[in-house]
Queue: 3 jobs
Job 1
Amino acid sequence: AITPHGLGLVRVDSLWGVVDSMGSMKLKPRFNSYYVRSHFNQRFFLKRDTTYSMVSAKGKILHRGVYDDMPYEFGNFIYIRNKNKEGILSNSGKVLIPIKYDQLEYTWPNWFIAEQNNKFGIIDTLEREIVPIEFDHIYSLKRNFVCQKNQKIYFFNGSGPPFDINVDGVFPYGNPYHDNEILATKNEQYGLLKSGQWLIAPSFDTIIRYLDYHIVHQNGKVGYFNEMGLEIIPPEYDKITMRGKNFIVEKQNQFGVLNQDGANIISVECDSVVLLAWNKSGGYACCFAALRNNVWTIYDNRGYPISSTKYDLIGSLPQNTFYLKKDGKYQMGIFYNGQLQLFDKSFSYLDQLGYSNLVTFRDSSEKMGLISTDGTYLTKYNIRFESIFSDIKDVYLSGAYLVELEGKYGIINSRGRYTFEPIYDRYEKSPFEHSRQTYIYLFKNNRKYKAQLNGMLTPEDL
């Protein structure tokens, strides 16, 4: 065997030794087993009976000890165990913490939560007590510590003694590596602690972290606080949906829009509100459509109407496009450079095709065609197929769609090109609809074919 350090492990009479790259013996064969991890580029371990040796990349024994198990590495430290007690070695084999603790748990910043005789404390690599070993339990939450003793909860932020924070319970919250808040309860209500002080007072049924906000629930209502613990949306709404950097709010079946500071930009008196377009790079909403008294109006992200026209129906389409219906006709539009742009052609129907960037349309003949919203849709229609089809369906294929033309069936891809022209009498979907498939069965002249999306057509028995 070759170690990652260029040393060779040789076996003689069932015992292991170490030779260098020239074949010279560095350690005579007297070890029962070895342990090498490829990313431990400075050392490995050899075992003889119950004695374990840490060996350097030059074949020198750095440390030797009697342990219950093979030492294991965690970061820059090596855990050692003997007689159910734990200690810590450095990477160079120096004993940092002697084997006398029931358990050692590494924590920030290079400290260890130590257990001894069912009591817990915190020690450093010089075995100095940062927190006395006298607590019933200690656990870390981000860069803080919660200590429990005699049914009281204490907070330790890394300096000074732990202090009583007068709460009933504490819980992990948000991202344990980035968020500094701690979820806590007092009198069966939730609040947020930061550095041992209340960031959000305990007066809520639940609190949930979402992006840069804290979502609070109180008596069945929902509200938002910002990262600094300031209330931006009071908990008085039935539902809040974040759209870009705005919020669509619902109260008693009425809808409105608030900005990122909680200010009202579309009053909560609409029957429905839809986000039509948003700036992907900036992450903010561009315009909304709101329904009042059976009439739809388009607003910008400041709440100002951007068109005097009132519509019967408005809905979103892919790539920030949307449809507008008035007097039974559909138009396709986009909000671009702060202005509403409408394409000049009208349709009898528009809808998104599955989850693609394609839009199906029907014209006055009620035939279906296909529009792509990729690339050139800002200046003109990118019509992939004119209105020639009886139907276009999403049949759970991966980036392809079924078309019907004069009673015949075919397949088009997401670029609007034929994979199989519509010459087949009928089709049969794959039975596996839990995920997108790469084939479909097509039938022609009483023959069955497996049509794969790469264009291969394979006959199959009926």
Job 2
Amino acid sequence: MKKVLVVLMAVMLFATMFVGCNKSVESPEAAEAQSEVTAEEESVEDAQSEGLSLADLGITYLQSDDITIMEGATTAYGMETASGEDLAAVFTPEILQEVKDGDFTAVYCGHEDFTLWAQSLIESLDSTLDKLGVELLTSTGSNWSIDDQISKIESCIEMNPSLMVIYIMDADAYANVLKKASDKGIYLIGLNGMPSNTDEYDTYLGTIIPDTYMLGYYSMDMLCDKVQDGQIGASTIIYYGEDSNSRFQGAMDAAANYDKIEVIQGADIAMTVESATEIGESMIMAYPEMKGYWATWDALAVGAGSGMASLGKNVYVSGPDISDTSSVRSMLTDGMFVGTAAISPNDLGTLVALMGALGFAGEESPELVLSPVVMFNVDNVKEAWQYSFGQELDAELKELID
């Protein structure tokens, strides 16, 4: 028995020596390299645990202390609305990473692409999509022609993008192309208006609209506050959809708060400054005591006011938006344009990109999002311009301020 135990112990000792001899010995250099790899892995894990944020990607929204951004409406189209903050709050690090890791593309089919406003919207959309790792394949304009726009939408569908953004000019005009795009699995976003029967399109993500009612309300309020008493002319535009009606209703509701203001409704204006000038001339001849004039678009209000001035009558004017420099120039020189409430194309482009990103990640976004109202007046025009258009006011106009 003792012999057996001795033999077993010898075998175990030999096995232990064999394993020890075959054990690799790590060099100092290898140990250092392994330590660096481990540290790098831990760094990646830490970064993943902290996660991406919109700010990390350089995407900001409503980031300015120099301008006034007004509280928006709570309903539109009979639905509850969400804000841009509500949309941004949906994002998590995982959603952002999924979008950036994907291979997504987008197209934008707009109403026009020649104004500074439209170009700024497209630049904002392109820039935000790029930060999310999404390629904007193309953007189109149609000079306010729905037929031309639909033709271009058809061409964009053939590009098979992941996302199609359509500027809505007539809620009922897009049924065929929306159905065709949806059947191909292309995500859809309506901008500026909500198309009819959105529940029929499986890939429809949602709608982003300017707060048109409050645009009309605040711009007319500024005009009435300046005039205080007397007659104010007001005209809507020959335009498709809910947009102009909502602006006009907001303006009428604002004017109703001023007991000494009488609103005289003028003829509808075509989408040209020449048309506005003619209507301004006809209105001031019919109502020579008129003190103010409001139109649903700032450039048209300036055009009408110029028409009145050509007949020797100077009135104050206002109208929603800052579409070009004509209203800003008036604010800084003759003071005819009193200020306004405007849509920020910079904000709109950002919000559209964010809604699209949520769709790419398979996440639900708010169904109807309102872009906020930015106030423009003679005191903040430089800052408000920078915020809204993402670029500085041109040098000539800056000299008028400085």
Job 3
Amino acid sequence: MKVTLNKNIKLNSAQAYLRFQKEELRKDIQEYLNGKHFEPLIETRIKDYLKNIGVFDEHYQLTKFGNAVKETGKMFVSEEGKYQIWFTQSDSFFKNIVFYFRRLQPNAKDEIRNQISLDRKGHFLLPTDENKYTKLNLVSDEVFGNVNNSNDQIHFSWVWENLEKSHYIFSGQLGNKDRAANVKNEAIPSDKDIQKIISEILPEWDNDKKRYCIRFDRLSDEVRKTFEDKNFASKWNGFEVLIQNLPLMPYDKEDAKKWRNWLLNEVLKKEYLSISGFEKTAMELNKKEALATFSLDIPKTKDFIEEPTSKKVFWHLTAPMDLNPNTKITKNGN
């Protein structure tokens, strides 16, 4: 199953003074944590520095954060100044976060006019030709700046792979033509809980069976045969949602009977079945993954004879009884 959520994101722009933490790769610190040593005086200073930034605790032992730095080399480094920022305001998914920034020359004559509401965590520096993708956390308690008129818009796709992992892809252009930043549409790993969100998109999703519970009468013949919707479309939280190869199961036991009986009728349209063949086919259908949970009984042959869906079904079920009840005959004679 593959899930793709698409939406356009409107970005505001402003010149603002702020302080934030930017995720950076610090190979030097990673090498030190993995065994590289220095002369005693330098080593003492390094340990104190790492304690001050939370890599070591009061006893100079690695913290949880320190262990992550040791493994990945990534850590948040503080930065502050004047920036041109592109950000969302009350977006249905991202709320109030920075997506991109560009450093500006400070000016003592700057006149600050607006307070800008931004969340504390979850900010981005989107990947462009000028920079790599970077995570940001805001340090400033309040952000002030001058909001510009901006019509910038980027496209956002969120791609899920079998409910196991997901990634973001952004595309579009930021800024004016003189100095535009073209966003690279590269995959950015997401840590969102997609197991929870699938139940918001599909309220009838069965988390145990990993299938969508659906009414039999809503389905096409092809979907009924495969227990799978090749292209299921929906909407959620401002997104257009496309689910490819959505696994399905009956909504309840009554729908499970309808579904199983329909499949039996499809078999009977194509071949002759004796009573034993009929029961064997019904048992095989009952064991299908989407039906097994309902523990269906074997249907009575006479019920299908008395209420056939077509003359062909009636003939393919009754003829073997007249000829040889222990024989299964196909239309090809095999």
